[in-house]
Design a protein that fits this description.
Blueprint (H helix, E strand, L loop, with lengths): L15 E3 H8 L3 H9 L6 E2 L5 E4 H10 L10 H7 L4
Antiparallel strand pairs: 1-3, 2-3
Helix pairs in contact: 1-2
Length: 86
Protein backbone atom coordinates (compact mmCIF):
# COMPACT_ATOMS: atom_id res chain seq x y z
CA UNK A 1 0.00 0.00 0.00
CA UNK A 2 1.51 3.36 -0.97
CA UNK A 3 2.45 5.90 1.64
CA UNK A 4 -0.48 8.10 2.59
CA UNK A 5 -3.16 5.73 1.28
CA UNK A 6 -6.44 5.99 3.16
CA UNK A 7 -8.23 2.84 4.29
CA UNK A 8 -11.79 2.08 5.38
CA UNK A 9 -10.74 0.75 8.79
CA UNK A 10 -9.92 3.22 11.50
CA UNK A 11 -6.15 3.47 12.02
CA UNK A 12 -6.76 3.54 15.77
CA UNK A 13 -8.07 -0.01 15.91
CA UNK A 14 -6.13 -2.96 17.31
CA UNK A 15 -5.14 -3.98 13.75
CA UNK A 16 -2.79 -1.01 13.48
CA UNK A 17 0.57 -0.28 15.08
CA UNK A 18 2.31 2.98 15.86
CA UNK A 19 5.86 3.84 14.79
CA UNK A 20 6.88 3.45 18.44
CA UNK A 21 5.24 0.02 18.65
CA UNK A 22 7.11 -1.19 15.56
CA UNK A 23 10.36 0.35 16.83
CA UNK A 24 10.00 -1.33 20.22
CA UNK A 25 9.24 -4.69 18.61
CA UNK A 26 12.25 -4.49 16.26
CA UNK A 27 14.54 -2.98 18.91
CA UNK A 28 15.32 0.06 16.75
CA UNK A 29 14.60 3.78 17.02
CA UNK A 30 11.51 5.51 15.75
CA UNK A 31 13.76 7.34 13.25
CA UNK A 32 14.74 3.98 11.76
CA UNK A 33 11.09 2.98 11.35
CA UNK A 34 10.36 6.32 9.66
CA UNK A 35 13.25 5.62 7.26
CA UNK A 36 11.71 2.22 6.45
CA UNK A 37 8.36 3.89 5.77
CA UNK A 38 9.75 6.74 3.69
CA UNK A 39 12.04 4.32 1.83
CA UNK A 40 9.10 2.12 0.85
CA UNK A 41 10.24 -0.91 2.86
CA UNK A 42 7.33 -0.73 5.32
CA UNK A 43 3.87 0.33 4.08
CA UNK A 44 2.04 2.81 6.30
CA UNK A 45 -0.71 5.37 6.24
CA UNK A 46 -0.28 8.92 7.41
CA UNK A 47 -2.93 10.41 9.65
CA UNK A 48 -4.06 14.04 9.34
CA UNK A 49 -2.02 14.68 12.49
CA UNK A 50 1.14 13.63 10.61
CA UNK A 51 1.59 10.43 12.59
CA UNK A 52 1.88 7.08 10.84
CA UNK A 53 0.07 3.79 11.39
CA UNK A 54 1.23 0.39 10.14
CA UNK A 55 -1.27 -2.41 9.62
CA UNK A 56 -0.46 -5.66 11.40
CA UNK A 57 -0.77 -7.48 8.06
CA UNK A 58 1.82 -5.24 6.41
CA UNK A 59 4.06 -5.46 9.47
CA UNK A 60 3.94 -9.26 9.43
CA UNK A 61 4.84 -9.25 5.72
CA UNK A 62 7.73 -6.90 6.50
CA UNK A 63 9.02 -9.21 9.25
CA UNK A 64 8.85 -12.24 6.97
CA UNK A 65 10.55 -10.43 4.07
CA UNK A 66 13.46 -9.28 6.25
CA UNK A 67 13.69 -12.55 8.26
CA UNK A 68 12.89 -10.90 11.58
CA UNK A 69 11.51 -13.32 14.20
CA UNK A 70 7.73 -13.19 14.53
CA UNK A 71 6.09 -13.22 17.94
CA UNK A 72 2.64 -14.74 17.42
CA UNK A 73 1.07 -12.85 20.35
CA UNK A 74 1.25 -9.65 18.28
CA UNK A 75 -0.86 -11.18 15.53
CA UNK A 76 -3.42 -13.12 17.59
CA UNK A 77 -6.39 -10.94 16.58
CA UNK A 78 -5.40 -11.31 12.91
CA UNK A 79 -5.43 -15.13 13.03
CA UNK A 80 -8.70 -15.22 15.02
CA UNK A 81 -10.45 -13.19 12.31
CA UNK A 82 -9.26 -15.63 9.65
CA UNK A 83 -10.54 -18.56 11.69
CA UNK A 84 -7.26 -20.29 12.36
CA UNK A 85 -3.55 -20.19 12.87
CA UNK A 86 -1.10 -18.77 10.38
Amino acid sequence: MPLGTQMKQTPHSKDWLTVKGVADYCLVSGVTVLRWIKGGKLPAIRLPSGHYRISTVDFRDFLERWHIPIEEWLFESESKKEGGEK
